[in-house]
Design brief:
4 copies of one chain form a homotetramer. Chain A is an alpha+beta fold. Chain A is 23% helix and 39% strand. In chain A, strand 4 and strand 5 form a beta hairpin. The longest helix of chain A has 18 residues. Chains in contact: A-B, A-C, A-D, B-C, B-D, C-D. Chains A and C meet through loops of A and loops of C.
C-alpha cells in the first residue's frame, strides 16, 4: 500500500439534509475530491485525462458509516492505493472527525479507466501509481 | 424478500459531471429517493419520523456500477427489503436503463434507526416491514 | 413570448436541508432541467451542442422565493422564452405547488452561447427559438 | 455597509457539469456557505437558530455570472451586509478567481427570518448585524 495522503474539509450546511446530518451521498463527494487531489499530487490530472478521452470511472464502492457529520464539523479524508487487478485499481479511504479523531466512515473504492469507445485503457501513470 | 417496488427516473443534465456521465454520488440520490418512496408506499413517512426524532440512517452501502447513465437516459430503480439483524434492515436495489433494460448498477444498502440520543430504536413499522 | 412549456416534479428528500425545506440552490436545478427539456422539445439537444463545442451558459439569474417546497410536494415548473438582445436569450420561469396551485418561486434566467474559444456564438436554432 | 468577510474555496470536480465548468447552481452553494461562515463570525449559528425554530430563508437572489470556474481553480467568496427593510436583510457577495483576481460572479441575496409558524421573526442578533 502507498503512503497516506489526506486533506481537510469542513461541513457546509447545504450538505446536511432534514435530519441535520450530512446526507449519505455527500460522503462520496468528499471521497472523490480527495482521490482527485491525490491523483493530482502524483501527477495525474483528472480533467486533462477527461479531455484526452480517458475516463477514470468508479466500478464499486463499499462504504461503512460509523458516526454522522454535522454542521460545523471539520474532518480529514485520506486515501491510500491498492492494486486490485491488471485493469482495476483501488482506493482505501477513511473519514475522521478532527475534533476527537473519531472514525466517521471507511470506504473501499474500485476504479478502472476506459477510452472514448468504452474499452478498458489504463494510462501508464495510473499503472505505475498502483 | 419483499415484492419488487420500482419507480422511473430520467437523467437531469446537472447530474452529469465533466465526463458527460452521471456522477457516482448521484446514484446514491436515486437509490435514496426510491427507498423513501418505497417506505411511503408501505406507510412510513421519512419526514414525519425525522420530526418525531427517529432517524433512519444508512450504515453501509455496497454499490456496483456496470454502465454509466447519460443525458437523456430514462431508467428504473427498484427496491426490495431484506432483514439483516434485529437492529439492521437491508435494501437490495438495482438500476436498469429503460431503453434496453441493461443493468446500470446494483446495490445493497443497510440501514438502522436511532433516536434523538443516538441510541438504536427500531420503530415497529420498520420492524414489521422487514 | 412563446407558448408555455411545463413539466412536473416531486421533491426528493435529499433536496431538503436541515431546515426541512428544499435548499435554495436546488431551485436552480429544477429550473435548469425544465429549460433543457424545453430546448429538447424545440429540437435543441444541450448535450449534443456541448459535444459540438457550443456552450449554452447562464449569464444572470433573478429568482424570487415565495413559499418553501417540502418533502412530498409535487410541483410544476414552466418556461417561456424572451429575446433580450442579439446575443442574449431569456427564460421566464415559475414554480407552482401542484396541491393548491400556489406560487413557490418565479425566475428570469438570461443565457448566451459561446464557442470553444469563449467567443459568443448563437446557434441558428437558438436564434430562431427566441 | 459592513466590513468585508471572505473565505477561500477550491473547485471540486463533482461541481463541474458536462460543459467542464462549475454548474450554475453550485455558485449558490458557495455563496450560502460564505454567508453561514460570516454569520458564525458575527456570533450567529445557523444550525442553532434552526434547532430553535428560527429559519433564515432566502427571499431573492440576483446573480451575474461573468466567467466560469473550472477544475483546479481556487477562488475567494466575500460577503457584506446591507439592510433592506425592517424584516429583510441583504448580502452583497462576489466571487473572484484567486490566480488573476478576475471577477467570476457578483450577487445580491435578500433574506428574512421566520418562526415555526411561518411568521416573520427577526432575531435581535440579525437585527443588530444589519
Amino acid at each position: 500500500m502507498s503512503e497516506l495522503f489526506q486533506i481537510e474539509f469542513k461541513v457546509r450546511d447545504y450538505e446536511c439534509d432534514m435530519q441535520g446530518i450530512v446526507n449519505n451521498a455527500n460522503y462520496l463527494h468528499y471521497l472523490e475530491h480527495t482521490r482527485h487531489e491525490f491523483l493530482h499530487h502524483i501527477g495525474l490530472d483528472f480533467e486533462k485525462l477527461t479531455r484526452e478521452g480517458i475516463l477514470l470511472v468508479v466500478k464499486r464502492i463499499e462504504l461503512d458509516y460509523s458516526l454522522p457529520l454535522r454542521s460545523g464539523d471539520s474532518f480529514i479524508v485520506d486515501c491510500q492505493t491498492q492494486r486490485i487487478s491488471p485493469l482495476r485499481f483501488g482506493f482505501i479511504q477513511s473519514i475522521r472527525r478532527l475534533e476527537d479523531n473519531k472514525s466517521i466512515a471507511t470506504a473501499r473504492v474500485i476504479g478502472t479507466a476506459i477510452n472514448r469507445l468504452g474499452r478498458p485503457f489504463l494510462p501508464p501513470e495510473i499503472d505505475q501509481a498502483f
